[in-house]
From TrEMBL:
Organism, as annotated: Acutalibacter muris
Residue ranges annotated for the 4Fe-4S ferredoxin-type domain, each copy included: 214-243
UniProt key word Nuclease: no
UniProt KW Iron keyword: yes
Protein name (record): 4Fe-4S dicluster domain-containing protein
C-alpha cells in the first residue's frame, strides 16, 4: 500500500502521504516511521481526557481493565503524539472536534452534559495545539457550517476554554487522567507517563514496567518541586507527590 501511495505521489496524482487513525499508539508509530507527511487524528477535549489506553482497548474489543500491565505501560500519551508531530513538522488534521456532537451545547447524545461547548470553542481547542493545521468538523447543514466559520470573527471571550476545566474538574477530581495538562515541566518530565507507570507498578511491578520507566529521559526523582504542575492540574492532583511516589517505587 505504501509503495502504491509513493507511486501516486511521484506521478503527481497525490500531494501528500498520510494516514487516519483513532489509535494513539498506531499513529505515533506511523509518525516516527518517517513515511507519512500528514496525520488525521481525533482532537477534542473529551478524547484527550480519556485514559491513554482506552482507544487501544476498543480496537481490541475489550475493556481497558483487560489490557495487560505491559500493554498499558507501553501505551503512549496523546501529548507525546502531538509533540512528535510538531517536532517533525507533520501537520495534524483534527477530526471529530465536536466528539460526534456529544460536547456541543444542547446535545442529546449518550454522554451529553459532561461538556457543553460552542462550535467556536471546539475549533479553538483543536487549534490550540501547535501541530494542528486545521479541524474538520462534520456538518448537516449550511447553518452548522456557519457556526464553525464564526471562529474567524469570534472574540477572545467567545474562544475562551476555561469552561473545560470548570466543567470536568468536579467529575474527575482527584483522579489522574494522564492528560498532561500539567505541562510544561521545567525538568522535561513526562508527568503523565511517570504517574501512569507508578500507578501500574504499585499494582505489581514487572520487568516491562521498570524498563519503560528506565527508558524515560527524566524521572520522578528529577522533580525540583516547583509546583507548576500541581497548579495547572484541573483535577486537583498532587503531581509533585506523584513524582515523589514514582521515585520511591523505582528508586530514581
Amino acid at each position: 500500500m505504501y509503495a502504491y501511495a509513493k507511486e501516486l505521489k511521484n506521478a503527481g496524482r497525490a500531494g501528500f502521504i498520510g494516514i487516519s487513525s483513532h489509535n494513539t499508539k498506531i499513529a505515533l508509530e506511523a509518525v516516527k516511521s518517517g513515511k507519512i507527511e500528514v496525520l488525521m487524528f481525533l482532537v477534542n477535549p473529551l478524547f484527550n481526557l480519556l485514559p491513554q489506553d482506552s482507544a487501544d482497548a476498543r480496537m481490541k474489543g475489550c475493556a481497558v481493565a483487560e489490557l495487560s500491565d505491559e500493554e498499558k505501560a507501553a501505551y503512549p500519551t496523546k501529548q507525546e503524539l502531538y509533540a512528535e508531530c510538531e517536532k517533525r513538522g507533520i501537520p495534524i488534521v483534527a477530526m471529530k472536534p465536536f466528539a460526534a456532537g456529544n460536547i456541543l451545547k444542547g446535545s442529546k447524545g449518550p454522554i451529553s452534559g459532561l461538556l457543553e461547548l460552542t462550535p467556536v470553542q471546539c475549533v479553538q481547542y483543536a487549534l490550540s495545539f501547535p501541530a494542528v493545521a486545521c479541524p474538520v468538523p462534520g456538518f448537516a447543514s449550511v447553518d452548522e457550517l456557519n457556526q464553525s466559520l464564526a471562529w474567524l470573527t469570534a472574540t477572545e471571550e467567545e474562544k475562551d476554554l476555561s469552561i473545560i476545566s470548570e466543567s470536568l474538574a468536579g467529575k474527575f477530581h482527584g483522579q489522574c487522567m494522564y492528560c498532561n495538562h500539567c505541562q510544561p515541566c521545567p525538568k522535561s518530565i513526562d508527568i503523565a507517563q511517570v504517574t501512569k507507570l507508578a500507578d501500574l507498578a504499585e499494582k505489581g511491578l514487572t520487568d516491562e514496567i521498570r524498563s519503560q520507566y528506565t527508558a524515560l529521559a527524566t524521572h520522578g526523582g528529577d522533580c525540583i518541586r516547583c509546583g507548576s504542575c500541581t497548579k495547572r492540574c484541573p483535577f486537583g492532583i498532587d503531581a509533585m507527590g506523584n513524582m515523589a511516589r514514582a521515585a520511591a517505587v523505582f528508586g530514581c
